[in-house]
Specification:
elongated; 10 helices; 2 domains; about 300 residues; five-stranded mixed sheet; about 25% strand; seven-stranded parallel sheet; alpha/beta; Alpha/beta knot; Ribosomal Protein L25, Chain P
Amino acid sequence: MPLQGIGYRFDPGTLHSQEGPPFGGPSLFHPPQATRRRQPAAGNPSQATQGRQPRALKRRLRMSSLWLHVPEIPPTGSSVAVSRDEARHAFGARRLGVGDSVMLFDGRGALSLGTLLDERARDGSLLVEVSERREAPPVLPEVTIAFAVPKGDRLSTLLDLTTQAGASRLVAIECARSVVDADKLDRGERWQRIIAESAKVAKRAWMPELATGGELIAFARAERARGAAVAVAHTDESMPRTTLAAWSAALAGSDATRPRTVLIGPEGGFEPREITELVANSVACVSLGPCVMRVEMAAIAAAVLLRS
């Protein structure tokens, strides 16, 4: 069951330090709430009318923190079609209306304020006018979570919450004890939809890359070759280990922008020979804490610790 109830919230100085808040500050996402006027005494209609605002004015003053995903954001002044599902959420669950503001993002760094129009595209999708387009840089350092694919629908939990935690790349790898093939990611449309929904919740301008990395040792070597620092989350206390937080802090002191990759094994853990080969390839052994975690929980914990 997806862990939708986790109440973790990033400090604005971490995730939002580079991706947002865009367009000049927090007022876009946390607009001032309209204050409730004190009701005048009964029998004084002139005072009762005085404190009211016309409904149209209230709507123009209301600004939304709703993010909507679109494949591509056109130039300022153009309009873009938002899918019927997105439109249903805007007009239904969020109770927005024509003239209200939303945030558009394409998942590749482009952001734009948008205004809901009183028009529909031919397929029933919603039209949004584009204004104040900008490009947001990705959050550094790059954080890659490489994982053995878990059984059942736990993959959706992993993708959902590691996206909210700020992972830059999500890579499925093949381990000796893997129980699910990494090519399960071939059903890409569903997984990308989960990532897009999570990116909206987290207000991320950049959606994480989802890919397959192949065999464990080959992937670790490729990561080292591109300059990433690589660690393997291992539960064997007989191995010399440091905590993931301490490993990350040491990297921050030497090279704050160096890419970081953490390897998460399958339910049965890594085989001893895999750990031996990883260590021989300059992969650090790290601990995520005193408890053994399922694959998806370990991936989430790693992403949170590397972004904390």
